[in-house]
Amino acid sequence: MAGSRKKLGPRHKARKRAVDFLFEAEARDLDPVDLATDRAELSSKVDSVAAVPEYTITLVTGVAENLDRLDEVISSHLQDWTLGRLPAVDRAILRIAVWELFHANDVPPVVAVDEAVELAKQLSTDESPGFVNGILGQVVLVAPQVRAAAAATSQKAAADDSDDIHS
User: Is the pLDDT of residue 66 over 90?
Assistant: First the structure.
């Protein structure tokens, strides 16, 4: 019982909403960040429009800002498939999960993978949960190196900025 309650927590709902926005933006050829931000503004003015969780905006923005890199990582782990052949909902789920694996330091890798699989169960085909789990099982192996490289890059940038200030 506790497990099902956890899955429906605020972060799960935020992830599901982010999948919805990424899916809708792709289908309608819209900017996902603009779509999510506009919907958040609308929800503050119109009671019948569901509120947009802050974490949803974080996810949509993170995916949009890193889309090429995320797609490159996902594509490199697809065997006999291309990213374009995947169902759009699976693309959105994978993009969010890979972004969380690489950038969300407060999300344990097992949680990012479990949440993605749960979303695939709820939103996609019968084959999708296993497929998503398989891809993310490979990506999770490189995630620590990606995080470490990103941390080193940001530390170097901070040091360079500090040097610029002191020069």
Answer: yes
Which are the contacts of 99, defined by CB distance < 8 A and separation ≥ 6? 59, 62, 63, 66, 70
CB contact at 8 A, 96 and 26: no
pLDDT digits (tens, 9 = 90+) for 72-127: 999 999 988 899 999 999 999 999 999 999 999 999 999 999 999 999 999 999 99
Residues 6 or more apart whose Cβ sits within 8 Å of residue 101? 109, 112, 113, 136, 139, 140, 143, 146
**Mean pLDDT score of the chain:** 90
Residue 44 · residue 53 · CB < 8 Å: no
Helix (H, G, I), strand (E, B) or coil at 80: coil
What number is the average pLDDT over the span 59-70? 97
Give the span between the Cα atoms of 104 and 106, in whole angstroms.
5
- DSSP for 7-56, please give it: HTSHHHHHHHHHHHHHHHHHHHT--HHHHHHHHHHHHHH-TTSPP--HHH
| Amino acid at the residue 38 | D
